[in-house]
Amino acid sequence: MQCCKAKARLAIRLTPSVRFVGVDVQFKNVPSSYKYTGYYKKARLIDPESEPSFIPLKCYNPPQIDENGCLTLPVMEYTREARKRRARELWHEKVRKLDTVEEKIFELSMPRYYGWKTYQLGEELVMYDALPKTQYMTQTHIASEPGLPSHYDQILDAETIDATVRDIKDQVEESLVFEYNYRKQDYQFSLKELEDKTLQENIRTKAISEQINRILMSSLSMKYPHLMESQIDIDPRIEAFWFFGGFEVPPLIKKARKSKENSKEWADEPVNQQLQYKGKPILQVRHQLPLREIMSMEATKDTSWEIPVEDLDPRTVGYKKLYEHASIIPGFWPGDPNEFGLVSYHNMGYLHKRHETYEDREDAIKSQAILANFAWLYGQACYQGFSTFHNPTYPLVNQAVITNGQEWNFSVYQLNTTTMHIDAINENETRNMCWVTEPIKLFECIEDDKVKGFNDEVLKNLIKFYANVPQVREGVDMKPHLVKEKLVANIEDPERRKWLDERYKHLLSNRPRHRLVPEIYDWQRIYMIDNKTRPLDKRRDWWQFKKHVFRRRLDDHTPPYIPKKQREDPKSRKKWAKMYYPYVHPKEMVDPHNIKEIERPVQGEPEIVPPWPKHN
Question: One Pfam family, short name please (predicted)?
Answer without folding.
Answer: PDCD9
